[in-house]
Amino acid sequence: MSKPVSRRVANAALMCGLAAGLVAISDGAQAQPAVEQFYKGKSIDLIIGYPPGGSNNVFARFVAMHMGKYIPGNPNIITRNMPGAGSLLAANYVYSIAPKDGTVLAIVSPTTPLDAKLGNKNAKFEPEKFNWIGRTGMAANPLFVWHTTPYKSWKDALTQEITLSATGAGSTVSVYPTVLNNLMKTKFKLVMGYKGSGESMLAMERGETAGHSTAWEALKTQHPDWITGKKVRILLQFALERHPEMQDVPTAVEIAQTDEQRAVFKAVLNATEIGKPFFTTPGVPPERVEALRRAFDKMVKDPAFKAEFDKAKVELNPRSGEQLQKLVQDLVSMPPDLLAKVKANYGG
Asked: At 313, phi and psi to the nearest 5?
């Protein structure tokens, strides 16, 4: 007597599933030696879209020291600074010129994907086509002034000009204050051309400008005494939510007065969730992308890697490559009406 049709179908489906699973395991088993063979004896260039000395440079060097031991074949990772155009120079290089084989990683400004989406003529790449590997942390940016200035609140900029030292037009240090000016009619004046946040902060200390806006980690790593000694006064933070260490400082989203202002701030400040992002080129074989992502995931759990962040007194708040890829995809899928409003107020 034959088995009922439903049972035969179920058994057939089960066998197909087992076969598919065995094929996947076999493919994975074959991919691992191939990836290891590819990376063995090689070096990976880690392109840093910032000048030396800043917090992003520090994080990149932590990654360079620790990630290689988790990549099959244990390649060396060598850092290369490539600053320029608010990290767009580095992003363009990785997209168009760098080898598409998994031997290049990069970290750039978190606003870089938005620059491309908004049609910045200097952004010659499609951010969703990068293979995003993972992030080490958020990117909340406080806006602060030197303690001897008379400014007590961001509202002071509604009635008087406050100068801020800044770098390139596409960097967060200029984009965020410009969006604030356009949306809230503040009068923060950007003094452009400084080579990184380190130089910008020293310009503020010398009295060349009243203040600066940069990553919280940059302020903490380079001038922790400015925080403990209250040498700077934080007026506002560019973030979707208040940073745990700046709970008494309002966010740009909080001070928005209309739904449209809030929507624009949230779209721009999506960059704070992209944070400190690491990625590789388009066109990398999937098994190598997978190996790099899993190596990154293992690295951020490594006690030795965590100790680097503890020593630097900065927060390690990682996201996976898959999560970053979705964030970037969500950004490039922004509705046209919101995109138009963001573009009208953007400072890139």
From this structure: 60, 45
Give, in degrees to the nearest 5, the angle at Cα 238 between 300 and 306: 15
- Please give the model's pTM, rounded to 2 decimal places: 0.78
Q: Which domain holds residue 295?
A: 38-138+275-345
Q: How far apart are CA 60 and CA 44, in angstroms?
A: 13
| pLDDT tens-digit series, residues 107-148 | 998 989 999 999 999 999 999 999 999 999 888 999 999 999
Considering the domain architecture, whether residues 163 and 244 belong to the same structural domain is answered as yes
Contact in structure between 151 and 162 (CB atoms under 8 Å): yes
Q: Which of 344, 318, 336, 332 is nearest to 134 (CA)?
A: 318
Q: Same domain for 130 and 149?
A: no
Q: Are 143 and 154 in contact (CB under 8 A)?
A: yes
Identify whether 12 is part of a domain. Answer: no
Lowest average pLDDT, out of 9-18, 284-293, 296-305, goes to 9-18
The b/e string for 178-188 (b: 16+ C-beta within 10 A; e otherwise) is bbbbebbebeb
237 bridge partner residues = 142, 251
